[in-house]
Amino acid sequence: MTDPAAVEPTTFVLRARHVLTMGAAGHVRDGAVAVVDGRIAAVDGYAAIAARFADLPVLGDGGGILTPGFVSCHGHFSEGLVTGIGETHTLWEWFVHVVEPIEAHLTRDMAYVGTLLKATEMALSGVTTVGDMFCSAPGTPAITPGIVDALDVVGLRGDVSFGPADVPHGYPVDRIVAEHHALAQAAAASRRTRFRVGLATIPSSSDTLLAATRSLLAETDRLHVHLHEVREEVTASRTARGASSIEVAARLGLLDAQTVAAHCVWLSDDDVALLRRHAVAVAHCPVSNMILASGVCQVPRLLRDSVPVGLGVDGAASNDSQDMLATVKTAALLQKVHHQQADVLTAPAVLRMATLGGARALGLDDTVGSLDVGKAADLVLFAEASPSMAFVHDPYQAVVYCAGTRDIAGVWVDGERIVAGAQILTADVPAILPHARELAVELATRAGLASELAVT
């Protein structure tokens, strides 16, 4: 086996006992992927790949499981410094006691440091692409470019948005639009990040903000929005505007954009029909839905009705970890216990949601989500030499139910290795931790959070 440190970063052969392509080739046993200049050049049995690409260095010892990089299609790096604080709150109580108090105090430095730590946590759990909505007050100067700076350091692929709300805060819409534009400019100059228009929720948006959002979508035809996370949201929208949030968004033309909608827990038949008609993708966030007691997303029904579904770790203050493997396992178990049906959501189905499903939700399935020729070499290798992965009866179930972050031998994005031996290679996390703690103390204190860190 070639020493990874001595290998050209983006050109190599990676072999494994099981290659789960989530694409046309399906499950390849004793397989390998050939990577040339950061793109997948071939997927086949190892013998065929070795013969065809004899000059390329070979990574992997022939054991373990190789999958596409995971795609987390919803989260909030804005919560990166306030983990583990709100478990006794339902969503709207959590808004009042955790999220809203910090929004006016977030800075670009906080955005950078929080993202650096949480993006690292994601990478260590196999995430290679992250969809994020940063929720804060609009800044002067702009806050959100800090997200892009951190993603560039860690090396993740990003689909980032600013998630504004102006009810009841009264933030000026022109400043909100300026924050969108600042994030878009930062993403355009980044390594692997692109911009998406964001909107927190329909009920927390004035008519002026909704109109501004529609105008922004004329420039960038991609939308990230929360829809029907809790029953209270549906009631609030119907009370204020005479229709559900999904109906309002559809009526205003917002759903004509390529839309990823977080949660979608409380859905009527008409809501599901609108999602399907507008090809809206759902970002299912099972851990935060459970912590905040929001309800259970109708995942099996959505999949049957051809509504695309991906997975999201959600925010660092509502999950509260950013461990994608925990999200994958929870997604399967939640549906099984809710429906009291063991086969309602199987390991292959939930692994597809974590890879190709998430890529489709973000409109990136032509680039990532499966191990197909021509796509980016976003890869995760699970080591065989571990107590939990030493023997694999079913590789799909091994990844979904057995694997932990300790088992991740390597993560590659565009063929660049960013994780080796369960350690991040791209970010100096120990060096940033003292400053991160200082920022967490500052934020907790200024926001008046019920935190051990808050200085009183």
From TrEMBL:
Keywords: Hydrolase. GO terms for molecular function: hydrolase activity, acting on carbon-nitrogen (but not peptide) bonds. InterPro entries: Amidohydro-rel (IPR006680), Metal-dep_hydrolase_composite (IPR011059), Metal_Hydrolase (IPR032466), MTA/SAH_deaminase (IPR050287). The keyword Hydrolase applies. It comes from the Bacteria. Pfam families: Amidohydro_1 (PF01979). Residues 65-417 form the Amidohydrolase-related domain. This is Cytosine deaminase-like metal-dependent hydrolase.
